[in-house]
Target: TetR/AcrR family transcriptional regulator
Amino acid sequence: MAKVDNISEQEGGAIRRRNERAILAAAERVFARHGYRGASLQEIAEQAGLPKSNVLYYMGSKRKLYVRLLERMMERWNAMLDDISPEDDPAEVLSAFIRSKMQISRRHPEGSRLFASEILGGAPFLQEYLSGELRDWVQSRAAVFREWADRGLMDPVDPIWLIFLIWSSTQHYADFEAQVLGITGRDALSDEDLEKITEFLTRVVIKGCGVRHPAPRAEDPATLTER
Amino acid sequence: MAKVDNISEQEGGAIRRRNERAILAAAERVFARHGYRGASLQEIAEQAGLPKSNVLYYMGSKRKLYVRLLERMMERWNAMLDDISPEDDPAEVLSAFIRSKMQISRRHPEGSRLFASEILGGAPFLQEYLSGELRDWVQSRAAVFREWADRGLMDPVDPIWLIFLIWSSTQHYADFEAQVLGITGRDALSDEDLEKITEFLTRVVIKGCGVRHPAPRAEDPATLTER
DNA sequence: GTCTATACAAGGATAGAC
DNA sequence: GTCTATCCTTGTATAGAC
Model:
């Protein structure tokens, strides 16, 4: 089983890794643009600079390739889903939440559109993820938001609708990029634009939900030294 | 040229209108779900209860059918785009704006998803509409919002980002319906849910943008009689 | 006016040459 | 390990039977 004619053998050779990366990048673009059915292996292969059958050789099938891309996007997503507790400062948490969502949209617009396309089509591949893992995540954050509201740190808004508000308003700049650019008349949004938008959304959400700073607690040394 | 064997002859017979309606309804669903390329005339025909070639017979081509659906959605859209002036009450205008957007999402979810799919794919058919007609519309509303800010009726937020915020957060319930249902664990959102969401979004936007009621003007009789 | 039959390209996937 | 040739299905579109 040992093959000595290939130096970097871990997880397939270096050429394999390079080709796989090229295929994944191209496939993300094409799937994002045309959806699962509308995307063709032909186009993916062309954009990856490989013959059509190599895509299948490396990825097995169109379906496997698509699922792999979805999973990769979910991982990026999860990497930013830090835990929060009722002890945290609501304004800081919401601000960080909005900022990280904007950064994902900025860094992975095709991934965001791929996900959007999947949901738009009724989420045939992601249904159990949505009603399982993601639902649990949302419910746990919602519980924290509710406790903040109970403690008077923010208005008693429904946390679920708040989370959807943040998701939709941030993803919009990746998913509806074509519309944003058409209406603003630009080639692309600059980093400064995105900073401005982030500040705008943060401001509206925090002010709109009546978020207040928590009173510093005497029993918390960290809070005391900071002031 | 006169044909007397058909009673309701205006714009084609009654059967024709019925078939066209069935095709348009089916096509909207299928295009919304799979995108332009991913949609097949086969599936559209099946859902319309007609043989495949009748779809082409009535609509000419896949492309024409798609364009016709987009135009129909733009018309529904335009029907709700009432004019506003700097004299209007900002809170009322924003509230009505959010409400009408939510109603379109509610009444035409497939149309909303069709539009979303078109934008997601880079808006190949709608580019000039976005950077022309729609851009002008947005700029004119933005001017009104700016004047409100200048007159101290709301915070000086960028009107363009505000419009995108309203669009994205309302459309989300049509476009990402699969996600919303998965996370909330329901079959469908009720009218009461949508009323709650509308109130929530209105509240956050108005409060978040610091919208204030305009001072009643002495020279305006209508305002005086109302108080 | 409406549907069946068919043309012809493009799709995903596999077998086998290199 | 990589690419060419090929199979079979499905797609859009049209011609012609009913």
